[in-house]
Write a structure and sequence with these properties.
Multidrug efflux transporter AcrB transmembrane fold; alpha/beta; 28 helices; Alpha-Beta Plaits; 4-stranded antiparallel β-sheet; about 950 residues
């Protein structure tokens, strides 16, 4: 991957205009799609397979008058007045008729004075409610209809006596459409300041912001275009915006910081851009993949709107990764070498004077900045580790108080009319009136539907937690009945969820007594079911995320302890972030300062989103910090062959490991610090004026990033690595063999740089000390010139087959140097496969056609395995095809005996092939013996 990214970075650097214009075209296409196809967001929450959803679907079929969304207008009489007296009664009844005639979407507008309705006038006769029922869900009601309802409510308030109150609310107005405010721009400004300090260049500092904003534009436009085909909630675009900005800035930062350091060291800008994308870009791609997997893993909950949210956010992250590895080097191509920034001029120190006649005292050479920090952390690693773990454990205590619920009008800003209506209803009628429950079932077999529903209503009224049964009636065709229940507690109160479970526990009893298969449903029940299902999904999702981190980091670092410490650090970060959210939204700490509209339950999908997003970002910092430590440890000579004369091998290795922790930390701390500050600034900017649903998510991400970056990754992890010492990099041999190789540190790019001048000639095949242990090949040396040929013989058939596949780029060698068709293996295997044809000539009948296919496009090399297994006629066909092939195409043939291959090459007009005996690792010319050396 690193070599592919390195080539991509070089090409983008050379063709900046092509890359920039391409992304602008993509932005234009996505924007046009959003304008033409966009249908708007939809805050209708559903959860297939649950009782509440099944109940809604049943009502939609048989009792549509109560299945759609609803609204209500509460009227509170002036002090001393009764709501049942004129002029209240007349004005309210007239208004009910006007509301019913707004348009066809209004199915009914029920007057509180209707003789068939109970409970719409409170016990004190000081307030009344007009209930509106609509066809379809809230998203089906047009903005014009909402405006007309608001105007009628205002007219009613104007007609009523002085001192009365009128407020419009209900399910239709329970959710707000979130938007972007100027506060979010403050986060970008802080990010820009951090970038300026990091890069010490105004021009370079603006590039990560530019790439992030362009990426967000593409992803946001794509999300709105997708509303034509999928249901997208209003929170989804803002979550994608928040994530896209944060990771977009950070990913570009990682690549540009590596590029700037290399250019300052004197590396050519083009070569530096290529290396930066191949090394830091590899870590970016890995980090992006972890975020993608975690976000897509939100589908664990089995809730459609949450799955859509995860996919949309993952699209934003994928676009950010794609822009980081393409547009970032392209913009660096515009700047060329103007990326070093201004030089920091050290302020001269004033030496302290000693006593008279004495020279000034020499200044102390104490480590500063990141070096001083990591030195302090690793000096007392056990104490530091305990302090961090205990401290974060204390911070996590409020997480035990977290209650989850879907948002309702009660969490809207206090100046919102829907919030005012919610509060008035709760004050005048009780909190449960804002979240009625519905019991529904089929009563088609009943001979007395009215009496049946009345008896059922009486039974329901006896349940603890039921304040009253507002309605108990069959539908017009007497095949479905409903019981509308007003709980004693608010919709988001845990006691209401307990009431739903209690009602469902009577299912069998009421089925036996009344013969009705009852389901508990309604807007409140749907929210409770969603919260319960999300709560149940947290454990399997957590196991998935932590298990994934263990597997990925084991593959990356070839270590067991590094993944374990990374996973434990992630757990500490996530529970501490939950604790901070609980302290603010449940306990009310700093709630006013953060403009929290209402202290209470938080949005139910906050925990699973926070777990998914923070996982990817935490692994990002882990990889960037620890990979540098691993690189320094591997390159330290004491880590491999310590000198026993200066101390025990264990002590020397431990010292090398400690040096690697300190040097690796110092080399990457600046960028990780900047990345953490930028992400924190972007996330926290969505808290003060953000949407009520997004606010706890933004606060959790901001707190989680700050904790993970600065307390876990930059404090706890170095301390644990110092405790582990050389054991941090140990892994069982059997596990090492089965793990795939993932180059996220750009080792292949560095290897290519060091071997750029090898072998020093134009050989199509160059191999030195080539080893394939399982095939029994050790220290193989060979060269094949352009248009030249070689015959590989000796050894077993399987050995020759493996060697042929290695030369064709289909199998990676264990070790040694191998360059084929100008590309270094195994890093450039994809390129080699594109320039090398291979024929496994052990199956009779298809060899000629296979060779024709292998020679298509004039490859630099063609490898033919098993020539001696062919008949004379087939070898003649091979010779004919090779005779017609391009003269520059090199040929390598294998066989148990060299004679058949030599005959084919002679018939094809190929001169003087090298014969290489694999079993003796020697090569002979066709007419004289000479060892082929490097």
């Amino acid at each position: 991957m690193s070599t592919l990214l390195s080539t991509l970075g070089r090409w983008s650097f050379r063709h900046p205009w092509r890359v920039l214009v391409s992304w602008l075209i993509i932005l234009g296409i996505a924007g046009a799609g959003a304008v033409v196809l966009g249908q708007g967001t939809d805050n209708t929450f559903s959860i297939p397979g649950t009782e509440s959803q099944a109940g809604l679907e049943q009502l939609n079929r048989s009792f549509p008058a109560v299945s759609g969304t609803s609204a209500q207008i509460i009227v509170v009489a002036a002090d001393g007045d009764s709501i049942t007296d004129d002029p209240y009664r007349k004005d309210i009844e007239d208004a009910a008729l006007q509301f019913a005639d707004v348009d066809d979407s209004v199915l009914s507008a029920t007057s509180p004075y209707d003789e068939h309705v109970n409970g719409m006038i409170n016990d004190d006769k000081t307030a009344a409610i007009i209930r509106l029922q609509f066809e379809g869900q809230a998203s089906d009601v047009s903005a014009e209809t909402k405006d007309a309802l608001t105007d009628l409510a205002d007219e009613l308030g104007a007609e009523l006596p002085q001192g009365s109150q009128t407020s419009l609310g209900g399910e239709l107005f329970a959710t707000s459409i979130p938007g972007v405010t100027l506060t979010e721009a403050v986060g970008l400004l802080i990010a820009l300041l951090v970038l300026i300090v990091t890069f010490r260049s105004f021009a370079v500092a603006g590039l990560p912001l530019l790439t992030a904003i362009l990426g967000v534009g593409v992803s946001m436009a794509g999300i709105f275009a997708a509303t034509a085909f999928a249901t997208v909630s209003s929170t989804t675009p803002l979550l994608a915006l928040m994530l896209g900005l944060a990771v977009g800035i950070d990913y570009a930062l990682f690549i540009m910081a590596r590029h700037q350091d290399q250019v300052r060291e004197g590396v050519d800008p083009e070569e530096s851009a290529s290396r930066a994308v191949g090394t830091a870009g590899s870590a970016v791609v890995f980090a992006g993949i972890t975020v993608l997997i975690a976000l897509i893993g939100l589908g664990f909950a089995g809730i459609p709107f949450l799955t859509t949210m995860g996919i949309a956010a993952s699209v934003a992250v994928a676009v950010a990764v794609a822009i980081a590895v393409t547009l970032t080097p392209a913009l660096l191509g515009f700047l060329k070498g103007r990326v070093t920034g201004w030089k920091r001029t050290p302020r001269p120190r004033r030496a302290k004077k000693g006593q008279e006649g004495e020279p000034p005292a020499a200044p102390l050479n104490r480590p500063k900045g990141s070096e001083g920090w990591v030195a302090g952390v690793t000096k007392r690693p056990i104490l530091v580790s305990l302090a961090v773990v205990i401290g974060l454990g204390v911070v996590a205590v409020p997480a035990l108080s977290l209650n989850l619920a879907l948002p309702n009008a009660g969490v809207l800003p206090k100046d919102s009319q829907a919030r005012q209506s919610y509060d008035l209803v709760g004050e005048q009628f009780g909190p449960g009136f804002n979240g009625p429950l519905i019991l529904t079932g089929t009563i088609v077999t009943s001979t007395d539907p009215l009496g049946l529903m009345e008896d059922l209503g009486d039974a329901v009224a006896e349940i603890d937690g039921v304040k009253e049964v507002a309605l108990s009636t069959p539908n017009e065709t007497a095949d479905t009945g409903i019981v509308q229940i007003v709980p004693e507690t608010a919709p988001d109160d845990p006691a209401t969820a307990d009431l739903v479970r209690e009602l469902r526990s009577h299912h069998d009893e009421w089925l036996k007594k009344f013969g009705i298969d009852l389901k508990v449903t309604g807007f409140t029940a749907v929210g409770i079911d969603i919260s319960d299902q999300l709560g149940n999904a947290l454990l399997p999702f957590g196991i998935f995320v932590i298990g994934l981190s263990l597997i990925l980091l084991t593959i990356v670092f070839r270590s067991l302890w590094v993944p374990i410490t990374a996973a434990l650090g992630y757990l500490l970060s996530i529970i501490a972030a939950f604790g901070i959210v609980g302290a603010v939204f449940e306990w009310g700490w700093f709630a006013d300062a953060l403009h929290v509209a209402k202290v209470g339950p938080i949005i139910s999908f906050m925990p699973i989103i926070l777990m998914g997003v923070l996982f990817g970002l935490a692994m990002d910092y882990q990889v960037f910090l620890v990979s540098r430590m691993r690189e320094d440890y591997v390159h330290d000579k004491d880590s491999k062959s310590p000198d026993a004369s200066t101390g025990s091998a264990t002590q020397i290795k431990r010292a090398a490991a400690l040096r690697a922790v300190r040097s690796g930390f110092a080399g990457s701390a600046k960028v990780v610090t900047a990345a953490g500050l930028i992400m924190f600034a972007v996330f926290v900017a969505f808290v003060p004026e953000g949407d009520s649903s997004l606010k706890p998510i933004a606060l959790g991400l901001a707190a989680g990033i700050a904790i993970d970056a600065f307390l876990v990754r930059m404090t706890l992890i170095p301390a644990l690595m110092a405790i582990l010492g050389e054991r941090a990099w140990q892994i069982p041999r059997w596990l090492e063999k089965i793990l795939p190789s993932v180059d996220i540190e750009g080792e292949a790019v560095e290897r290519e740089r060091h071997l750029a001048d090898w072998p020093g000639d134009d050989s199509v095949v160059a191999a030195d000390d080539l080893v394939m242990a399982d095939a029994g090949i050790e220290a193989l040396h060979m060269r094949v010139a352009p248009g030249g040929s070689a015959v590989l013989t000796g050894g077993a058939a399987g050995t020759r087959r493996v060697l042929a596949l290695v030369l064709a780029g289909r199998v990676a060698p264990d070790s040694g140097l191998l360059r084929v068709a100008g590309h270094l293996l195994p890093g450039r295997a994809a390129w080699v496969r594109a320039h090398v044809g291979v024929v496994l000539a052990t199956q009779a009948g298809a060899t000629a056609s296979d060779l024709s296919e292998a020679l298509r496009g004039c490859p630099a090399l063609v490898v033919i395995d098993g020539v001696d297994a062919l008949s004379s006629a087939q070898r003649d066909q091979l010779a004919a095809r090779l005779r017609d092939a391009d003269a520059a195409t090199a040929v390598v043939l294998t066989g148990a005996s060299s004679a058949p291959a030599l005959d084919v090459l002679a018939s094809a007009g190929r001169s003087a092939p090298d014969v290489i005996d694999i079993s003796t690792r020697s090569a002979q010319h066709s007419d004289e013996s000479s060892e082929v050396t490097a």
